[in-house]
Amino acid sequence: MNEIIGKFAREGILIEDNAYFRLKEMDDPATASSEIIVKIKKNGGGKFTLLTSEMLDDLFELTEEIDNPAEIKARGPINVPREREFDFRVITDTSKRSYTSGEIGDMISYFNSRFSCLRDLLKRRPELKSHVPIADLRGGDDAVSIIGIINEIRTTKNNHRMLELEDDTGEITVVVHNENHKLFEKSEKLVRDEVIGVQGAKKGRFVVASEIFHPGVPRIQEKEMDFSVAFISDVHIGSQTFLEDAFTKFVKWINGDFGTEDQMNIAADIKYLVVAGDIVDGIGIYPGQEKELIIRDINEQYEEAARLFGEIRDDIKIVMIPGNHDASRIAEPQPAIPEEYAKPLYSLKNVEFLSNPSMVSLDGIKTLIYHGRSFDDMAMSVNGLSHERSDLIMEELLEKRHLAPIYGERTPLASEIEDHLVIDDVPHILHTGHVHINAYKKYKGIHLINSGTFQSQTEFQKIYNIVPTCGQVPVLNRGVMKLLEFN
Ligand SMILES: [Fe+2]
Ligand SMILES: [Fe+2]
């Protein structure tokens, strides 16, 4: 089958002869086809759509609207002070910590670290002040409280939930009765390896739970911002599906060369650009990936990244962490993108390279940056959580005070002496990526932001029916969320 027709057919879109001939005559039919597919999907089309020549006109009108040279103004951003004062601080970055060998002894200290940090947070709750070590539990006690790590979650044939809870003294089975509807519902969001508090009654070998507690987050005092921050992730430079045009438009906008007056005013106010991983597509990330690459060398991918990011005006500080496609080690916490692979990128003076996760202070705004690999595990383990609603996953992770609670599934976690994925400090902003779908929510005063992608739908995403949000950039404009489109 012809390549263009095949591309549309795989999406369930039939292409009319006239539309096909017009597409074939274009400068870059492959990119144009990908963009059209994304637009059709975005407009709710897909299976059994017939792409006509008229539709092509409509779709290109949308593109031309953005390309319209009347909107592209002369370079020279308005109101941008030439010399900017940055109050930028790194709060946590695991890149330079020494790493362990992954021995079993490290596993014990890793889980001890997780348990003791989260127990300290749980202990602050009045209901858990008098918690007892599991080994000290006595039968027939009507009011006990314990803190432990969940080793296993089971559902009995009578549909009650059983939690195997462990602390540093012993193990106990906690029963959540299904008649206790509210608690049973709450227990559906529990995951293996998270640390919780339980209030209940000791009955024989079990503790029958009357309440379950997460470490939780308090409502935070929102801080005023007199500047703006743009958030991006999952650029996937080097992939055939990287949307270079959209990225270039984004760069033009941030430089003050493109957009409406309002949009240009926002651009002029941008002080920081945060990039939450998957800067490049990488090499050998999944079987058969090389067929989807346009740049098949990791150094060259970062060279291209340096060219593209190098276009950004240098009075914007760029904060960059790796994702699972970058050349960092795969186990989290991932150290910063290594300089040996990304020399040209390191030569840009306005880029800060940090670990995944890391926490920074952007002029006093505490920003926790995490790529989001654990969202795969959360979406698979918890009913009601999905890639589309990563804001709900972020909310859960904040309550659990851990960025990747489930150990040993799809998210490789390094068993360090310390567990660096515990959220010990509550941020003003939590910025993530990985799922390629934008999400935003303000939760207890915290901005939860997922920044989508600059990559059109991949073969892998087609299989799982994941429809990405491409070229849509969330901007925190003096504390107000705005989504800018660069398609
Ligand atoms: Fe990605
Ligand atoms: Fe990713």
TrEMBL record:
Domain OB positions: 144-201
Keywords: DNA replication, DNA-binding, DNA-directed DNA polymerase, Exonuclease, Hydrolase, Multifunctional enzyme, Nuclease, Nucleotidyltransferase, Transferase
GO biological process terms, semicolon-separated: DNA catabolic process; DNA strand elongation involved in DNA replication
DNA polymerase alpha/delta/epsilon subunit B domain mapped to chain residues: 229-433
GO cellular component term of the entry, any: DNA polymerase complex
A single MF term (Gene Ontology): DNA-directed DNA polymerase activity
CDD domains listed in its UniProt record: MPP_DNA_pol_II_small_archeal_C (cd07386), PolII_SU_OBF (cd04490)
InterPro entries in alphabetical order: DNA_pol_a/d/e_bsu (IPR007185), DNA_pol_delta/II_ssu (IPR024826), Metallo-depent_PP-like (IPR029052), NA-bd_OB-fold (IPR012340), NA-bd_OB_tRNA (IPR004365), Pol2_small_arc (IPR011149)
One protein family per Pfam: tRNA_anti-codon
Annotated catalysed reactions: Exonucleolytic cleavage in the 3'- to 5'-direction to yield nucleoside 5'-phosphates; DNA(n) + a 2'-deoxyribonucleoside 5'-triphosphate = DNA(n+1) + diphosphate
EC number in record: 2.7.7.7, 3.1.11.1
Similarity comment text for this entry: Belongs to the DNA polymerase delta/II small subunit family.
Subunit composition and interactions: Heterodimer of a large subunit and a small subunit.
Function of the protein: Possesses two activities: a DNA synthesis (polymerase) and an exonucleolytic activity that degrades single-stranded DNA in the 3' to 5' direction. Has a template-primer preference which is characteristic of a replicative DNA polymerase.
Full protein name: DNA polymerase II small subunit
